[in-house]
Amino acid sequence: MITLPLRLSPGDDLRVAVVAALLDSGQQAGFVLQGIGSLSVAQLRYAGLPQPTVLQGDLEILTLAGSVSADGAHLHMSVSDAQGRVLGGHVAAGCIVRTTAELLLALLPAHRFTREHDARTGYPELKISPDPLPR
């Protein structure tokens, strides 16, 4: 395992930046171990709902974790608002960094992650394979 600390800047799309960091590293598999920071917009899909809910305002990232592959990420996050209310769910594109986001990405050189449609769940799900050419 190789660790890659990341600092995202104001205006960055959190999900896009995480996938870009994996691609830039040349690796094929990774996990976000944790993340903290702030967002001005969070797009979270709650359990059982088909579309994300847009949260706007001063939001603090309390937790962030998930798997990352070259063809996407499966991230979950909890955030709190200015009144301390906590919400969490599946991270959709459009989570915009307000001041900073600090993440720790674990890269897994001996593995390749891909996403393949699973007829049982209806979603593209994680497929774990050995990487024939570890980088």
From TrEMBL:
Residues 1-129 form the PPC domain. Transmembrane segments: none annotated. It comes from the Bacteria. It holds the Pfam family PCC. This is DUF296 domain-containing protein. It comes from Duganella guangzhouensis. The lineage of its organism: Bacteria, Pseudomonadati, Pseudomonadota, Betaproteobacteria, Burkholderiales.
